[in-house]
Amino acid sequence: MALPAESSTVVSLPAVPPDVTVAPVRSGGDKTAFVRMTYPIYQGDPNWVPPLEMERKDFLDPKKNPFFEFAEVELFLARRNGQVVGRIAAIKDPHYNEFHGTNEGFFGLFECINDAGVARVLFDAASEWLRTKGFTKVIGPMNFSTNHECGLLVDGFTTPPAIMTTYNPPYYAALIEANGFTKAKDLWSFELSSSAQPPEKVARIAEKMRQREGITVRSVNLKKFDEEVTLIKNIYNAAWEKNWGFVPMTEHEFDHLARDLKQIVRPELLMIAEVKGEPVAFSMTIPDANVAFKAAGGRLTTFGLPIGLAKMLLALKKIRRLRLITLGIKEGYRRRGIDAILYLDTLRIAHQLGYEGGEISWTLEDNHLVNRAIESMGGKRSKTHRIFERAL
Question: Per-residue DSSP letters for 93-133?
Fold first, then answer.
């Protein structure tokens, strides 16, 4: 899908603060400061979920994150009088540009005090790095692609974020727009109760299609984990094709994510749909582990004691929320009711397992077919995340 044409309007950017410096992350201390600078930003916000510091450092480690096998990332810190006041990542993802035939760089991991001038220093640093790579446009926030957390929360600040979704202060949108960025695309989230009763007509048609098309749905078998991951991987990379923002995962990326999610999944809620024995679709619904991460407070140990880990493990047992994180159907098998069947089966099993409901996220704002299907099941729009763009 083509992005909106560039505007010829000249934008007046905020002044550069004379007392703010920006520099790339080079040392271990810089990386720790990059990870920890979120704490003063979100202090006192009851909905913020502190990320696990160990996980964030691993995510930024080229030796541990397979994204770095093909991509380049430059991290920047902004300081005022020695104190960190902002951060940003500039991202080169050659796989994205090869897949879409574009020439675009990305920014992500953006955090900043409420100062448009400080934000400009960060965006200028990231943009200059991307310009040296030959890019003509910057898009974000992406952490680091749509296969990870992405988008800026612009609506839905009253509840905590679901697992693997972003959260930020409301003023971030103004900082980004003040620096010449405009909307590229909105991503929608929906809230759905597991006790919701889909319209009788929807259920009847879904069952009719199940019988007529020979559609069967089964849960993933974790005892055959590697085989199941390979099967789902093939569906995943075939299902989204040239959708806006999508980029196929590499084998290593997919396997890495699957191993991480294996620690928290309920196999009953990982579903594969088959048509006459051929796997053609899957849906992935996972417990909202952010409930447990919030309990840990960002650290698994305190003074050498596994206090955070104990709190997290206890909270994991009490999770009653889910996130339907993805649902993909191969080309040629859409408009056969498979999406409705997977939604219905997920609702039924989630209710049986004692979950109260959760979030379906995210969908593209203009994916009308999917959005209508979710709404037909009783889903209500709950959050909006926005991707921005700016010419370099």
Answer: -HHHHHHHT--EEEEEEEEE-S-HHHHHHHHHHHHHHHHHT
Return the structure tokens found at 309.
Answer: 């880990």
pLDDT interval class at 8 (50, 70, 90): very low
pLDDT digits (tens, 9 = 90+) for 210-263: 888 889 999 999 889 889 988 998 888 888 777 899 998 999 999 999 888 888
Say yes or no: do domains 20-188 and 191-384 share a fold: yes
Report d(CA 108, CA 197) in Å as an integer. Answer: 39
Per-residue pLDDT tens over the stretch 64-97: 999 999 999 999 999 999 999 999 999 999 999 9
Task: Please state which CATH number belongs to domain 191-384.
Answer: 3.40.630.30
Helix, strand counts (H, E) of the chain: 13, 15
**Burial environment of residue 263 by CB neighbours within 10 A (0 to 12, 13 to 18, 19 or more):** exposed
How far is Cα 388 from Cα 156, in angstroms, rounded to an integer?
18
pTM summary value: 0.91
20-188 domain in CATH 3.30.420.40? no
The token pair at 300 is: 């698994």
